Amino acid sequence: MKIAIVTDSTAYLPIDIVQDLSIHVIPLSVTIDGQAYEEEVDLTSAQFYDKVRGDGPLPKTSQPPIGNFVKVFETLKGDGYDSVISIHLSSGISGTYAGAIQAGELVDGIDVHAFDSEISCYMQGFYVIRAAEMAKEGDTVEEILVELDNMKDTMRAYFMVDDLTHLQRGGRLSSAQALIGGLLQVKPILHFNDKVIVPFEKIRTRKKAMKRIADLLAVDAEKMPLEVAIIHANQPEEAAAWKAELAARLPEVKFTISHFGPVIGTHLGEGSMGLGWVQRKD
Length: 282
Ligand code: MYR
What we know:
- Keywords: Lipid-binding.
- The protein is of the alpha/beta class.
- Helices cover about 40% and strands about 25% of the residues.
- It contains 11 helices and 13 strands.
- The strands form 3 sheets. Strands 10-9-8-13-11-12 form a 6-stranded mixed beta sheet, sandwiched between helices. Strands 2-1-6-7 form a 4-stranded parallel beta sheet, sandwiched between helices.
- β6 (about 85-90), α4 and β7 (about 110-115) form a beta-alpha-beta unit.
- The protein is globular.
- It binds myristic acid.
- Myristic acid binds near residues 62, 93, 94, 95 and 121.
């Protein structure tokens, strides 16, 4: 039984992990000034933030075309794979997961199991890495899917943005919600609830929001071993400083620094920061 693990670019997995674990990545794209770029293939994160900063053009994002999924699944079939587990960003914020299901129905001779991470970014990556490690160790599709479902119990992510208009403009946080909550005047902490982004708490300043997120992490770190991702939108120094601070407070936690690439950056804006975690399997 040969199982392939597929994901999309919004997991923002480093290339060494992708190669070591034979993960297949399908890119989403971002369009700037009428020019479409597959993220992290045609456009790096740094290039993206440079292009759209200030009064720069308003970018738009697109899920991968179904045909791209079909091509990957056909190739995997040709390479002798029997099954695919295709892990994607939350179905509440993108049609990518639905695209994977549709494409799976179009390809005969290989079983495609799409998995809705109900989250995004490196937390999606946590699922992908676990699935790829299990596939390498010879676990079955059923065993991997059960483990992915179990991971949902301890998967958490909290994040904040510098400017909520990116999320509102892209329709991933309703205007009504933002206005009713008076969120535009504060630095709200956001999270995923039932696959969509909702405010978690209103906090006055960025510093206090980061402290509150760190406290939420500390509560879970008391209960179980964790792996944690610090995710930033073009703020590598701030992310490194936050990691040092968190690691001093929680020495038993394993930290990784990741980033919000062009697609997620389109909806969050430069300067966004987040923390996500899941129970670690040592
Ligand atoms: C598409 O066009 O299909 C992609 C839409 C992506 C929406 C992204 C919304 C923001 C997600 C934030 C994730 C934060 C995780 C810590």
